[in-house]
Amino acid sequence: MPHPPSRTAWYRILYVQVLLAVALGIGVGHFFPATGASLKPFADLFVRLVKLVVAPIVFCTVVHGIASVADLRRLGRLGLKTLLYFEVVSTVALAIGLLVVNQFRPGDGFHVDAGALDAKAVAASKTFTTQSKALDTVDFVLNIVPSTFLEGFAKGDILQVLFLAVLTAFALNSLGEAGAPMLRGIESLSRLFFAIMGIIVRFAPVGAFGAMGFTVGTQGFASLGRLLALMACFYATAGLFVGVVLGAIARVAGFSLYRLLVHLREELLLVLGTSSSETALPGLLRKLEALGCSRSTVGLVVPTGYSFNLDGTNIYLTMAAVFLAQATDTPLGLSGQLSLLAVAMLSSKGASGVTGAGFVVLAATLAVVPGIPVESIALLVGIDRFMSECRALVNLVGNSVATVVISRWEGEVTPGELRVRLADGDRHATGLG
To answer: What's the CA gap between 117 and 226, in Å, rounded?
Structure first.
């Protein structure tokens, strides 16, 4: 009788290594702050390595996925369903953030004078305020189109890469059989970049160790002070959104959210350790395909979702804006909050490809909503890094659920098939990790 395959030793499993690295980084940062502060280059190096291949992987995946669809009407229907889903769920996320921060009012009692804030923090906030000027509607639309074909790749702007990919896919589709060799070449390139990512991702524990060591070493725990109330509120709201809203959506679509999270555990831990959704994107694309979602659906929904379906950022946006109004004793009535919600529905769509996206979009929103001093975002500089992991995690989960739901709507996978594949995640999770 053939021997059963031996189980992988626990210490060789990537998500275990990342989890241990996160714990070790927290320990070093807490007990040896100077050493922890010096670990940032490890995190920066890993994120740079990942960014090397993210844009090419997105380009190849989207081009192959769309160009392989012969029925362009189906493609249009898929795009319409995707945008409709994104708008509804994003608005729910914004509204939940607004409701919770009004209920618990974590900013009450601060009585902060925006003009008296720490000079360094205000200087940092002005950087984000300056960046936010590029996020008005006209510039946002214009910036989707790069000046040259390679500009989006050079800048790592996923929205520009997505635009080029869609354009290239339609061009290949119009060529018919003449475009088939190029399509096969793009598929081969996709495999190459995924193989490169497979090598890079083995260094994820080093990146996670450096990121957590630096964060705790420079920010510490005691420095959070009274802002812990906002953090607790945000984390609880994010958990509520994932468990209740996304959980209900998953149940209606016929799959278990818990099983999906287990299936994506390596990607979730990568995001937790690095605070960057980009580090998990290549593995996420492959694991969603392993569940039965078509390449065209995965290639369209996931990259688009990172511009139009940032649920974690949306929750943060309304909570942080109202918190700052409370902290600076700025009256914000019902009309002001409805105005904030309307502005946030637009400004939140401009976060893709922007460093410190949550802060930049927050500054853009405050610049439009009258009353709340934009400089007050300096209050959040010290704790933003501790909330960025949660934002990135919720963004990842939200886009994963969206992809599976839209695949169900398209009839690509049945609830029974999802149950089988999610129940045996290790065998079917052929992604990186």
So the answer is: 15
